[in-house]
Amino acid sequence: MSSAGIPQESTASSAVPDPSSAVLYVCADRGPSMPELASERAVNEGREFAEQRGFRVMEVVTDPYGEPDPSLREGWQRVRALAAGGAVGVVLVRWPASIAPEATHEYRYRETNWLQEQGVKVFYTWAPLAASSEESRR
Fold this sequence. Notes:
Blueprint: E1 21-28, H1 37-53, E2 56-64, H2 74-84, E3 90-93, H3 105-117, E4 121-124, H4 127-137
Parallel strand pairs: 1-2, 1-3, 3-4
């Protein structure tokens, strides 16, 4: 409401994301013999991917594996907050299932569409997906 008492429509953040600022999101299953291995690989792979493409990883955000709806995960909520505030222009994830499992792919589409509406791009860092996603972006 304005100072004159006139209702005003609220608008989304007008922050323009820095296209080189990235958040690295990791949501990986923990293996019984080496529980940290998948997460470590995802972080190392993500940092290498970012370095090769000139992205600056501003933050690494992790979630435990298990919750299919990313909007219910604390870490993913942080990713959304960074995107909404214009702090990042890129979200790096190892593969699509890090956002949501294939069985609940509609959650992944919802989240990636929302990120795109904020002007944020999603990149998959696993080599076979990285190569194919870059081809489709040309």
